[in-house]
Specification:
The protein is α/β, with parallel strands linked by helices and 295 residues long. It has one domain. It contains eight helices and six strands. The strands form two sheets. Strands 1-2-6-3 form a four-stranded mixed sheet, with helices on both faces. A two-stranded antiparallel sheet has the order 4-5. Helix 2 crosses helix 8 (275-287), helix 3 packs across helix 6 and helix 7 packs across helix 8 (275-287). The longest helix is centred in the first third of the chain and has 17 residues, at 73-89.
Length: 295
């Protein structure tokens, strides 16, 4: 079975590698008003779904350690190396090997069946999946599905659960945020701090080989990198100038400059801010990709 799966990956995902597109999309400012440019940046951030449920945005604070299942060792290394390269370019810490896995990318023949099995056998692993996304994750037909596990920490980075188990040994740790009235703000030089932060503890990406047939392996790996490194949500209308539109007609085949700037801005964000404030900072990051936000 492993040999057949590896052959399928090699034959199908690499079939169109020669036709892979070179992404060159940026926010075009020539002949456009500042407001038009800002609206495009806002639309990009909105389409990613980050922070749109009112929860502060989560990101990795521990070094990332990707592991790939369901393919041969050389293909697995190629995919994992892509994730590591994207992370490094975005300023995300990458663990030195050998390391404790916190990102799992699985190539399977039926992505939906695998997710449903996880939901049945280990429902705690899907605790952080928003209710509105659960149906698509379990019953949808997306070629790639993903979800994250998060943890609440104090502003100084100390965990609140005392659970030191590896994230894939126990993925059902607390992932919620304080309810209305329970968030305590601290004001310093007119900046409001929530005193609590959300961090990513684990990411799972499931790639349905049959539904991804015809896509270049490197494109699929880039998509997996984007959704494992950022808490983006599934969408029927993903950003047009993004690897998230890989399966749309004429979608980019690699991370675009907007994707890269988005990840850099995401990993410059102060975590102890409200989702609304963080989304505003992400827009600023897209408009001024070379400028570091000091907040």
């Amino acid at each position: 079975m492993a040999a057949i799966r590896s052959m399928l990956i090699t034959a199908s995902l690499l079939a169109t590698a020669a036709a892979a597109q070179t992404a060159s999309e940026t926010i075009d400012v020539i002949g456009r008003s500042p407001e038009e440019v800002r609206q495009e940046a806002q639309q990009f951030v909105r389409a990613t779904g980050v922070g749109d449920d009112g929860r502060a945005i989560a990101r990795w604070v521990e070094p990332v350690c990707p592991h790939v299942l369901g393919v041969s060792a050389d293909i697995g290394k190629r995919v994992a190396d892509t994730v590591r390269a994207v992370a490094s370019e975005a300023g995300i810490r990458v663990a030195r090997t050998p390391c404790r896995t916190n990102i799992v990318i699985s190539f399977v023949g039926d992505g939906g069946a695998l997710v449903r099995k996880v939901a049945e056998k280990a429902p705690g692993r899907l605790t952080d999946v928003p209710a509105e996304d659960r149906a698509a994750l379990l019953r949808g037909d997306a070629p790639i599905r993903w979800w994250h596990a998060t943890e609440m920490r104090t502003k100084d980075g100390l965990g609140t659960t005392g659970n030191e188990a590896p994230p894939f040994a126990k993925l059902d740790g607390p992932g919620g945020v304080p309810m209305a009235g329970e968030v305590h703000f601290q004001y310093n030089s007119s900046i409001a701090s929530t005193q609590m932060v959300r961090v990513l503890k684990a990411a799972t990406v499931v790639i349905d080989v049959n539904r991804a047939t015809g896509m270049p392996l490197d494109s699929v790996a880039a998509f997996a990198a984007m959704v494992s490194l950022a808490e983006v949500g599934p969408s029927e209308q993903p950003p047009a100038k993004s690897i998230l539109s890989l399966f749309s007609e004429d979608g980019p085949r690699d991370l675009t400059p907007l994707d890269e700037n988005f990840l850099r801005a995401l990993y410059r964000l102060p975590l102890d801010r409200t989702a609304l404030a963080q989304r505003g900072l992400l827009v600023r990051g897209l408009l001024n990709p070379a400028k570091r936000d000091e907040n």
